[in-house]
């Protein structure tokens, strides 16, 4: 498959990318290079190879799913201009 300048212009329009008319041939060449790489990947024999999500076959450690307040109340409120009784204090805006 080969990408011409008209197709490159259409792709740029669909992607909402403004490409100047004189830059379209270079963009078409870049698309063709990318398609060439994809064709090379299609030639690799992966028969019998199991899909993987990581290079190392290890399970990531997980923490217990517990609801907490994070024990960060003091740190969060330390930057507040006005804090009262453990909450942000703000001016009244509704009468």
Structure, explained:
The chain has 95 residues and is mainly alpha-helical. It has a domain at 5-42. Helix content is 36%, strand content 4%. It has a two-stranded antiparallel ribbon. The longest helix is centred in the middle third of the chain and has 19 residues, at 24-42. The termini are far apart. Heterotrimer of A, B and C subunits. InterPro entries: Asp/Glu-ADT_sf_sub_c, GatC. This is Aspartyl/glutamyl-tRNA(Asn/Gln) amidotransferase subunit C.
What is the secondary structure topology, with strand pairs?
Elements: H1 5-14, H2 24-42, H3 73-77, E1 83-84, E2 87-88
Antiparallel strand pairs: 1-2
Helix pairs in contact: 1-2
Pfam families: GatC
Enzyme class: ligase
Keywords: ATP-binding, Ligase, Nucleotide-binding, Protein biosynthesis, Transferase
């Amino acid at each position: 498959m080969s990408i011409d300048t008209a197709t490159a212009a259409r792709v740029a329009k669909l992607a909402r990318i403004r490409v100047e008319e004189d830059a379209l041939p270079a963009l078409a060449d870049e698309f063709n290079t990318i398609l060439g790489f994809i064709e090379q990947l299609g030639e690799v024999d992966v028969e019998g190879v199991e899909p993987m999500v990581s290079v190392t076959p290890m399970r990531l450690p997980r923490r217990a799913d517990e609801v907490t307040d994070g024990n960060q109340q003091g740190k969060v409120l330390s930057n507040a201009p006005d804090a009262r009784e453990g909450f942000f204090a703000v001016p009244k805006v509704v009468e």
